[in-house]
Amino acid sequence: MHDEPGNRRSSHALRPLTVDDVDACLTLWRDTPGMGLSSADEPDELARFVDRNAGLCWCADGPDGLVATVLCGSDGRRGYLYHVAVTTPLRRTGLGSAIVRTALESLAASGVRKCHAMVFADNESGRSFWEHVGWVPRSDLVVFSRDLDS
Ligand SMILES: CC(C)(COP(=O)(O)OP(=O)(O)OC[C@H]1O[C@@H](n2cnc3c(N)ncnc32)[C@H](O)[C@@H]1OP(=O)(O)O)[C@@H](O)C(=O)NCCC(=O)NCCS
Hints:
Number of strands: 5
Structural class: alpha+beta
Largest sheet: 5 strands, mixed
Bound molecules: coenzyme A
Strand content: 15-25%
Order of helices and strands: EHHEEEHEH
CATH topology: Aminopeptidase
CATH architecture: 3-Layer(aba) Sandwich
Strand order of the largest sheet: 1-2-3-4-5
Number of domains: 1
CATH class: Alpha Beta
Shape: globular
CATH superfamily: Gcn5-related N-acetyltransferase (GNAT)
């Protein structure tokens, strides 16, 4: 990574995230304020997601573990991004936008033409990032959820 004052750019290589990376993902996410972890983030569920969406999820390695992640999934019609995270010291170096761009390229290559990002409503910083990089918040949609085991 080049360390020019005020203009730091990450040169971390991105690679596809695999099921073997799930524990390292959790280590990064647990250290990431604003990252909401739920019951869907148990290692088995995460491994299933990554397996079903092979080639769409991406990460970057640092000396002590993962420094960036994105979970990207597709239902064949639309793509969905979750858990876009960059370790704090590397933020504002282009890594977050690079990993999102790479996920979108892999989605587009699979024929999907639109992608949604899931962000908790109270994650002001996360919302501000998405808007800054050109994503449009939806006011015409509300997410309804239901547990299947109740
Ligand atoms: C959001 C996050 C992934 C951004 O990663 P990053 O590596 O800092 O992003 P980049 O350096 O690629 O930034 C791209 C652009 O967005 C801007 N930006 C980055 N974070 C921003 C923020 N919180 N608010 C506004 N703009 C932001 C950068 O200045 C840059 O602008 P530029 O292209 O005009 O220079 C990172 O801050 C993070 O991990 N946050 C915690 C987890 C989270 O909230 N994720 C999002 C919800 S899933």
